[in-house]
Amino acid sequence: MALYNKMSLDKNIYKLGVALSGGGAKGFAHLGVLQALNEKGLYPEIISGASAGAFAGVLYADGHKPKEIISFFKKKVFREFAEFTIPHGGFFKSDGFQSFLKKHLKSNTFEELKIPLHVVATDIEHGESKVFSSGPLIPAVIASCSVPIIFRPVEINKRYYVDGGLFKNFPVSTIRRECAKIIGVNASPITKSEFRSSIKYIAERSFHYMSGSNTLLDRNLCDYLIESASLSRYSMFDLEHVEEIYQAGYELALDFFKENKEALSKDFPAFAENTGSV
After folding, report:
1. C-beta atoms surrounding 272 within 10 Å
2. DSSP letters of 116-157?
3. How far is it, in rounded angstroms, from Cα 143 to Cα 47?
4. Cystine design at 22: which of 34, 51, 65, 176 (Cβ 3.0–4.6 Å)?
5. Are the beta carbons of 223 and 183 closer than 8 angstroms?
C-alpha cells in the first residue's frame, strides 16, 4: 500500500483506471458497468482489457458512449463476425470482426484514442503474455479476442497471437503501477455449469476454467472489484441477448454502488455529487 501512496505523488499518475476481463459475450456487461460509472461521474483515465474486455474497451476509449456501442450489435449474430474455414490454425477467420472494427472505430492506432488503452494478447509460439499499448489498433484487439482453436492466430510483427485470457484474463496488473485507484470488472468468475454432451460445452467450459484460474492475483490488486456469477447463464458466443447482458452489467454496478457508497464517495468526489439515486 505504501508503494501506491508513494506513486500517487507522481503528477503523471491516473486517478482512476478500469480493468475489463475476458468472457466472450458476457463482456457486454462491461458496457453496462461503464454506463453506470459515467452516470455517477466516474470516467476512467486509462483502460486495460483482455479479449471481450479489450473489445469493449477499445470502442469506449475511441469515444463511443456505452449505449451507442450496444446499438451496433442489434440483430447481430456470431456468424456475421466469423467466417467458417477449413481448419488451419482455427475453425473461423476473423474477417467479419475486422470489418466491424474498421467500420466503427475512428482511431487507427492506440495513440489516436481518447483514453489510453492496454490490450492483452498471448504469444502462442513463445508462451508469453503481451501488452499492446501503441501502434495499430485492430490487429491487437482481434488477437486479444482470438479464442484458440475457434479463431486463427493473428500475426503481428512476425509473431502469432491468440486470446489474452490464456495467461491474463483479468489484466489489472498491467496498469496497477500507473493508477491511484482501479475498478476491476470481472465478467467471468469461475462458476459451475450442468454437464452437456457437446463440443461447444466442453470447449467453453475448458476455456472458462483455464482463463478463470489466472485471475486470482489480479482480483486482489483491485481497489474495487465488480463481479457476479449471475452472468454465467450466457454462453461465450451469445449475441442474441446483448442488451440483456448489458442491462445485467448496469444493474450489477448499481448494486455495487449501494454496497460501497461510503468508500466510493470518499475516494471519488464526483461520485459523492452524483449519488442521489443510489
Report:
1. 15
2. -EEEEEEETTTTEEEEE-SSBHHHHHHHHH--TEEE--EEET
3. 17
4. 51
5. yes
Q: How far apart are CA 124 and CA 62, in angstroms?
A: 28
Cα distance between residue 143 and residue 192, in whole Å: 28
Residue pair 106/63 in contact by the 8 Å Cβ criterion: yes
How far apart, in Å, do the first and last CA atoms of the chain sit? 29
Nearest to 207 by CA among 18, 26, 60: 26
Assigned C-alpha cell, 193: 455449469
| Over residues 238-246, mean pLDDT | 87
Q: Are strands 159-163 and 128-132 parallel, antiparallel or unpaired?
A: unpaired
Write b or e for each residue in 165-198: b if 16 or more Cβ atoms lie within 10 A of its Cβ, otherwise e: bbbbbbbbbbbbebbbbbbbbbbbbeeeeeeeee
pLDDT 10s digits, 52-105 = 999 999 999 999 999 999 988 875 654 555 444 444 444 445 566 788 899 899
Cell numbers at residue 132, please? 499492446
Burial of 91 (0-12, 13-18, 19+ CB in 10 A): middle
Q: Are 182 and 49 in contact, with CB atoms under 8 Å apart? A: no
CA quadruple 94, 218, 210, 200: dihedral, nearest 10: -50
pTM: 0.84
Q: How far does CA 117 lie from the centroid of its chain?
A: 11
Cβ pair 37, 65 in contact under 8 A:
no
201 or 264, which is more confident:
264
Bridge pairing between strands 117-123 and 159-163:
antiparallel
Q: Give how far the C-alpha of residue 4 lies from the chain's centroid of Cα atoms, to the nearest Å.
A: 24
